[in-house]
Design a protein that fits this description.
The complex is a heterodimer of chains A (about 200) and B (about 325). Chain A is mostly helical. Chain A has 9 helices and no strands. Chain A starts with a helix and ends with a helix.
Chain lengths: ~200, ~325
């Protein structure tokens, strides 16, 4: 991949990742967030976080299947950090617009409501991953330990998917698509690992 | 539980003075209004949303609240027969066949009856009533409905003394093109009230909103509105009213009994398992101004709290 194409792609990725936040900001200023602005902010930030995280999980299997796309690795950190950015906005939305910055309400919700608990857990898992995303941190931790730590991203995504299902009413199927994609990616990883082992044994 | 006695409000403060002074004229007008509303709706062409309904201001109207815009009231709906998304009913309910429409009354009544929608519209003078509307999902609106007390219809039905509950069944047609397949709901949508709740003057048999015939997505052509209960208790597009001696099965209660009780009175002290009911989000307000304190029985405690004297509302949620 040529350097200029990489730069162009990076700019496009940045633009795409910033788009939901930019739209929310614009709509909030012009008061066009729809009938239930709080819900619009909640769902936009939450869904964007979960989708970016899921897309970032797709990079490794795609690279393994299609070697010429190896350069995709250079986008994984960007996507992961943007996922964390939206997850944080999502959490802030809850803290500000639902809990009204009231610590007792937050503690009460996190301890008593499973969907809030697991959503909070997902964010907590992402926090150290975001904090150790720099090259310096990778060197400091050592590649192996760093990779092991960052395996927990699967749990964050899984917790995110469960959070989505536990949050919606019975009968609502909106979390289905992201769930299917997530499960397919997990299945692809298992399959690829199994194939690799088979090859190694031969 | 503390139950406050209703305030003694002089009638003068509720009824506009001109009407109050001119009761005879008022009654004549109301009758005329009922007739014109009925005849205007006689031709099927004019039976749709947008048709004006003449109504008189009701003393039971809620005051001091900013109305939710017509646009938000008619584009942000829960009506699972037409999709689970809030914006879907406004699109897919347009094919709901609201004419001809009949309401069957059956069960423990002197004799089963069938009312045509135009008959229902003429039965009593229509009233303009603003009510707070609180959804169990913790959002709320303020809506100017049009209708008359359900008790007026129930009196005509002559229920037997053995009738303890009223069950409402909504329109359903699985042949309908956009019929949602896998929601897990047993159609038709079923709701119910205890007889005294159904007979309470606040329980509104509703035909319109904002001075017009109900848009389909809001439950055309006839629905009930029970302002002190969560929105899903206010069944839409009703085709059957059944008087029974047992607590009827209700749709959301059957789907998730731990989340939606039979009574489902608005109660800030009883949380939904997934969220607090202490506050609500007012629809149509900017994001920083949406949050409001939820009132016990949605602010109608003075009128209806006596219905629940001695009942544990935490257990009977």
């Amino acid at each position: 991949m040529k350097k200029t194409s990489l730069v162009v792609l990076k700019i496009l990725t940045w633009a795409a990742c910033l788009f939901p936040a930019a739209w929310l900001t614009y709509a909030a200023i012009t008061n066009t967030l729809g009938p239930d602005p709080t819900a619009t902010i909640t769902f936009t930030t939450g869904k964007t976080a979960l989708w970016l995280l899921t897309i970032s999980l797709a990079i490794t299997p795609i690279r393994q299947l299609l070697k010429p796309l190896n350069w995709l690795l250079r986008f994984r950190r960007l996507l992961g950090l943007f996922a964390f950015f939206y997850a944080s906005l999502h959490l802030l939305t809850y803290i500000g617009l639902y809990a009204g910055f009231d610590l007792r309400t937050i503690v009460d919700d996190v301890t008593r409501r499973r969907f809030i608990f697991i959503g909070f857990a997902a964010w907590l898992i992402l926090l150290p991953l975001a904090a150790t995303s720099t090259n310096w941190a990778i060197r400091k931790l050592g590649g192996k330990r760093w990779a092991l730590l960052h395996k927990s991203v699967y749990f964050a995504a899984l917790a995110g998917v469960i959070h989505y299902w536990w949050g919606v009413k019975p009968g609502v199927r909106t979390p289905l698509l992201v769930t299917v994609v997530f499960l397919m990616l997990m299945a692809a990883r298992l399959l690829l690992a199994w194939l690799k082992r088979g090859r190694a044994m031969r | 539980m503390l139950i406050r006695k209703p305030d003694d409000i002089p009638a003068l403060e509720i009824t506009p003075k001109a009407d109050y002074m001119n009761r005879r004229k008022f009654l004549a007008q109301a009758a005329a209004v009922g007739l014109t509303a009925g005849s205007a709706l006689f031709s099927p062409r004019s039976a749709f949303a947008g048709t004006k309904l003449q109504a008189v201001k009701s003393p039971l109207t809620t005051t001091g609240e900013e109305l939710t815009s017509y646009k938000d009231v008619t584009t942000f709906n829960n009506f699972y027969e037409f999709g689970t998304g809030k914006e879907e009913p406004a699109i897919y309910a347009q094919d709901l066949p609201t004419r001809p429409w009949t309401l069957r009354v059956e069960g423990k009544v002197k004799k089963p009856l069938t009312f045509d929608i135009d008959q229902l519209l003429k039965l009593r003078p229509l009233e303009d009533r603003v009510y707070r509307h609180r959804c169990v999902e913790a959002w709320s609106m303020v809506i100017p409905w049009i209708g008359y007390s359900l008790s007026e219809l129930i009196k005509q039905c002559e229920p037997l003394s053995t009738a303890k509950y009223v069950q409402f069944l909504s329109w359903y047609d699985k042949r309908y093109i956009h019929w949602p397949g896998q929601t897990g709901i047993q159609w038709p949508y079923s709701e119910g009230l205890r007889m005294d709740e159904a007979m309470h003057p606040l329980t509104l048999l509703t035909f319109g909103l904002y001075g017009e015939v109900l848009p389909n997505q809001n439950g055309a052509p006839v629905r009930i509105v029970v302002p002190w209960k969560y929105g899903f208790k206010s069944a839409k597009s009703i085709v059957t009213m059944r008087f029974i001696d047992y607590m009827p099965p209700t749709t959301w209660n059957e789907l998730a009994p731990t989340e939606y009780g039979f009574y489902s009175n608005v109660n800030p002290n009883v949380d939904h398992p997934r969220w607090s009911q202490k506050t609500e989000r007012r629809i149509g307000q900017p994001f920083y101004a949406q949050r409001k304190t939820t009132l016990f029985l949605n602010g109608y405690a003075d009128q209806v709290a006596s219905l629940y004297t001695g009942m544990d509302l935490k257990r009977n949620f």
